[in-house]
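An instance noted here:
***
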Amino acid sequence: MKSPLRATSSVTAALSILVVVVAYFLVRGVFGGGGESEAAGAEAEDLFTVVAAPVAPQEWRDVVVLRGRTEAARKVTVKAETAGAVAATPTEAGALVSQGEVLCKLNVDARRARLAEARAARKRARLDFDAAAKLAEEGFRSETSLAAFRAALDLSIAAVEQAELDLQRVNITAPFDGVFDDRIAEVGDYLRVGEPCGVVIQRSPFLIVGAVSERDVAKLTVGDRGVARLATGETIEGKVRYVATAADPATRTFDVELEVPNEDGRLRDGVTAEFEVYATAGDAHLLPRSALTLNDEGEIGVRTVGSAGLVDFAPVRLLGESREGVWVAGIDGAPQVILRGQDFVRAGQKVKVAPPQLGAEETKDVAG
């Protein structure tokens, strides 16, 4: 039989243990959740902060830059079509001319007399043919004889037309509206057939001609818009009217012509020019140059942040540059692109995101 003293000690010990256990669970129940929250908060505070912003695609056109010169779309050396001495030069060099306006006039000489002689011969040939035709109807002329008279009449008609044309050709005229740029012949000069009177340049449109490399020729098509800047200070806009299909064998480049208006006549032939052609259109992303980085394989690209705060790497292809940044292809949609801190994180890492508009104090934990 146990003594009352020993029983009392056992009960006291059991009660003490029970009190300790209950107190433990009470304390854990009261303070345990707060500890986990504090731990989670501490973990969030430990995440690396990057500056990122969504970048949406925009319409982009490739720009091909060429060097060249201005050139008249039509530039013709007007030449004599009949021989003779220059009798008059009624148009001054540099004057605006209309189609058909006389530039140089040759001496008529004996051309009028030859025309009168040809007309008289035609009249006689017609009378002979009419008489032969009447005799043939009555049976006094053969068909062969009548055919000979017909041939003589045709020859006389042709001689008249030739004499009239020769008389007209003493006037050397402008072939189209333009500028009489250079008068080569002077009064008293003798011009043979094919010798020049002067040069006529069409005033508008004008051309900017240049050459494009093999690498860029596929980007250009007829109708593409272009802007030319001339050495004389003018800036003018036009459209591509011609892209060569065969390369120059010496330079391996392809000729390109940009057609531009020149209604006011201020453009001159042969002026050095630089022009940009806005080529293939498509969607691309415009990024700050500082947003570009390299992955472990040496690929150029950008780092992005997904909805879960995880970093990813997107390789890109450089398309061109502008004052605002670089144009790239290879990004889908409008992801959040890391603009600062991208060189200090890796793919799969969880980060905090700060928007670009935050001040320096609020983003001081970003790298640098």
Notes: The chain has three domains: 48-59+283-354, 64-73+202-282, 76-201. The CA atoms of residues 318 and 328 lie 5 Å apart. The chain has three helices and 22 strands.
